[in-house]
Design goal:
The complex is a heterodimer of chains A (245) and B (416). With 245 residues, chain A is α/β, with parallel strands linked by helices. Chain A is built from 7 helices and 10 strands. In chain A, the strands form 2 sheets. Chain A has a 6-stranded mixed beta sheet, with helices on both faces. In chain A, strands 2-1-4-5 form a 4-stranded antiparallel beta sheet, covered by helices on one side. Chain B has 2 domains: 190 residues, no CATH class; 184 residues, no CATH class. Chain B is elongated. The chains are: A alpha/beta (245), B alpha+beta (416). Chains A and B meet through helix 2 and helix 3 of A and helix 1, helix 11, helix 12 and helix 14 of B.
């Protein structure tokens, strides 16, 4: 029997929310597709605090991906306010956004996005290079992150020598290594079998318990229910925003 | 700053990993650069070789010798004007020398008359025609820098007495006597017997046109006894200080005017020729050759550069998703730009080093098998070709690398 991805809700802890990290208010995003203007977001407001575990849900075309890009500082809003730890992201230029992403955001992708020719350790070290850490510091931090995701014995393996679940763990270690304010995971179990998916979600639970702030973007109800709060999008607007209960 | 160093180190690491991972592709791309660098550096060695040959040839004329002649070196327009000038006769050298002696602190050391014509040299059955035959005085020894491979130049007594002795150029001696020593033998210069008293060591040819080794030197008195001197001679004047050529030249003009009895206001009816002026005439030609040569070989390097640009575009395209990931993880535009530039430069440098090695080998082969072709390898060439490789890499890698650095991370991450 395939294990269910749905979590055991009874008896799980919810950490008290910390200070405000993300403050989005009245954000819109327009895309020009030839003659047509597409309103991917039509006025979205959301506040995310430290220690939150949030799921962003919505069918395709709901603006979910656009919101995720916005939250990940990969993109800026057409209109509206976006403050990340009180810094105004909406008006930042490319390199400033790159620095925010480097220091404040840990990305976990559906397709893992590891560099194929680098070892697991080198992959995890990558954000630290951009942050300007010395080789020795990089190594210490990266080994620590690898141990934290249970891969302390896989440091010098290349991605093609690792299983899907291990690859995603390496990606999570890479997201954690620079101690970001938020971890942003886009369909983290989308490319994994359900057993491995359960393991990854268990790891997320562990990270949450350790005090990390998690945002998981998904279209799977079972995955979303791991979070403590679910934001549902439809047609570029927030349909609902509330705790999992 | 330290961040930049870490990024650079990382970029080099990635660049070499990429090259290793795509060996064949990298080698084929580098081949274009190799060919370009070989062409450019070979041209460079050839130009250098020509230059050295030039200077060596010019040095044969002597950089401390002024030539008093009827004609200037180089092309003339008003032919008759020069042709009608009175001949320069050998005895004018004596008069000139007396003036030099009487001038205190003269910048001129000695004037030597040189008459010349073409004759043949014969010994037994062996005969060489078209030998450049000159008649001069014992002072000639003070002009030339060449050593004697055997024997000596005639002395003043022999010269003034018009003794039938001669000094052979290296090639003439070799052609007529093969491996035997010519010293003491009697050769026929034209149809007149002369005893060989010396052989000048090998000097090489002047710009590949005229061999200094194909000559025979006779005492002037003997020369004028058997060959006409009506066509005149030239006077070669050695100066005391080669840093003061201009002053020496002025002094010489005055002295020669006196010797030739020219009135004040009259235009000089002779020319003072010198190595420097010759050089000035030939330099533009030399530069023209260099420019055209470098342009043509530069084209092959240009083709190599296009190959690099192409492969960098391919590399950027292939790794669009990786670029997106790197940007998501905090890589700035500069980081991505540097990464691909370094990749392009690395391939160019590998090509450059291989090309340089190939050039070095070719130069060695050419200088052994075809010594007539002037090629010369130099340390400067190493630096220049490395610089050219780096610049090629930067120039050809820039457009694709710039494009990569400007990629929208959202678009790049979605790229499959």
């Amino acid at each position: 029997m395939t294990p269910s991805l749905a979590p055991e809700l009874a008896g799980r802890i919810t950490r008290p929310a910390g200070p405000l990290v993300i403050d989005i208010a009245g954000v819109t995003k327009l895309y020009q597709m030839g003659e047509e203007t597409i309103h991917a977001l039509r006025g979205v407001s959301v506040k995310i605090h430290r220690n939150e575990y949030l799921a962003v849900m919505g069918p395709s075309g709901s603006g979910k991906s656009t919101l995720m890009n916005m939250l990940g500082c990969l993109d800026t809003p057409s209109e509206g306010r976006y403050e990340f730890t009180s810094k105004n992201v909406a008006t930042m230029v490319d390199d400033e956004l790159a620095d925010i992403r480097n220091r404040e955001i840990g990305f976990v992708f559906q397709t893992f996005n590891l560099l194929p020719r680098s070892t697991a350790l080198a992959n995890v070290e990558l954000p630290l290079i951009y942050a300007g850490y010395s080789p020795a510091e990089r190594k210490t931090k990266a080994i620590q992150a690898m141990q934290n995701v249970g891969l302390g014995d896989r440091l010098h393996h290349r991605p093609n020598e690792l299983s899907g679940g291990q690859r995603q763990r390496v990606a999570i270690a890479r997201a954690l290594v620079n101690s970001p304010s938020i971890i942003l995971a886009d369909e983290p179990t989308g490319n994994l079998d359900s057993k491995t998916g359960v393991e990854i979600m268990a790891l997320f639970e562990q990270l949450y318990a350790q005090g990390n702030t998690l945002i998981v973007v998904t279209h799977e109800e079972d995955i979303a229910r791991h979070a403590r709060r679910i934001v549902r999008l439809r047609d570029g607007l927030i349909e609902s925003d509330g705790p999992v209960g | 700053m330290t961040r930049l160093i870490y990024e650079l180190t990382e970029s080099f690491r990635i660049a070499f990993a990429q090259i290793r991972a795509n060996k064949l592709r990298s080698i084929l791309t580098a081949l274009g650069v190799i060919i370009g660098i070989v062409a450019v550096t070979l041209m460079g060695t050839a130009i250098r070789g020509i230059d050295t040959g030039f200077n060596k040839s010019l040095a044969m004329l002597g950089d401390d010798v002024l030539y008093v002649q009827k004609w200037p070196w180089g092309p003339v327009e008003d032919f008759w004007n020069y042709s009608n000038r009175p001949a320069i006769m050998p005895d004018q050298a004596d008069k000139l020398n007396r003036i030099i002696e009487q001038t205190p602190n003269s910048l001129l050391e000695v004037a030597v008359p040189v008459s010349s014509r073409s004759t043949s040299v014969k010994y037994g059955e062996n005969k060489v025609s078209g030998v450049f035959t000159i008649g001069t005085t014992a002072d000639y020894g003070r002009l030339i820098s060449a050593d004697f491979s055997e024997g000596r130049l005639f002395n003043e007594t022999e010269a003034n007495g018009g003794r039938p002795v001669c000094v052979l150029g290296f090639d003439v001696a070799e052609a007529v006597f093969q491996s035997r020593s010519p010293l003491g033998a009697t050769v026929l210069v034209g149809s007149h017997p002369f005893t060989v008293i010396g052989v000048v060591a090998k000097q090489g040819s002047f710009l590949g046109l005229f061999s200094f080794d194909n000559q025979v030197i006779l005492p002037l008195e003997a020369f004028r006894k058997y060959f006409s001197v009506r066509r005149g001679a030239e006077l070669r004047v050695k100066i005391t200080d080669k840093t003061r050529v201009v002053d020496a030249r002025e002094e010489l003009i005055g002295a020669v005017r006196r010797v030739r009895g020219q009135l004040p206001g009259e235009r000089d009816n002779f020319n003072i020729n010198e190595q420097g002026a010759f050089k000035a005439q030939l330099d533009p030609i030399k530069q023209g050759i260099a420019l055209v040569g470098l342009f043509i070989t530069g084209l092959s390097l240009f083709v190599g550069a296009i190959g690099i640009m192409n492969i960098t575009f391919v590399s950027v395209k292939e790794r669009t998703k990786e670029i997106g990931t790197r940007k998501a993880l905090g890589a700035r535009r500069r980081t991505i730009l540097l990464q691909f530039l370094i990749e392009a430069v690395s391939i160019c440098l590998i090509g450059g080093i291989a090309g340089l090695a190939l050039t070095y080998a070719l130069v060695q082969v050419v200088s052994v098998t075809l010594p007539a072709i002037p090629v010369e390898f130099s340390v400067g060439l190493v630096f220049i070709s490395m610089a050219v490789s780096i610049v090629t890499g930067i120039v050809s890698g820039f457009a694709p690398a710039w494009g990569a650095s400007r990629l929208d991370p959202v678009v790049a991450l979605r790229y499959e």
